[in-house]
Amino acid sequence: MKISKKDALIWFEFFSILPEDEEITTKQQEIIYSTFAQIEEAIDYRNDTLMSKIKGLKTLENRTFFVGNEGRFPKGCRSCLLGTGLCAIRKTNKCNIECKFCYNYGELEDIPPVGEGMWEIGDTKFYEKDIDLLLSIHQKPTGISYVYLEPFMEIEKYYSVIKKFRDAGIHQHLYTNGTLATEETLKALGEAGLDEIRFNLGAANCSDKVIKNIGIAKKYIKDVGIETPMTPEFFEAFLKKKQAILETKLDFINCAELHLNANNIDNYYGENMYIARHGYISPIWSRELTLKFMKIADEENWDLVVHDCSNYTKFARDLNLSSKEGKWFGASRYACEFSKIPYEVFLPVLRDDNFKFLTEEELPDDYKPGEMIF
Question: Terminus of the chain with fewer CB atoms < 10 Å: N or C?
Answer without folding.
Answer: C
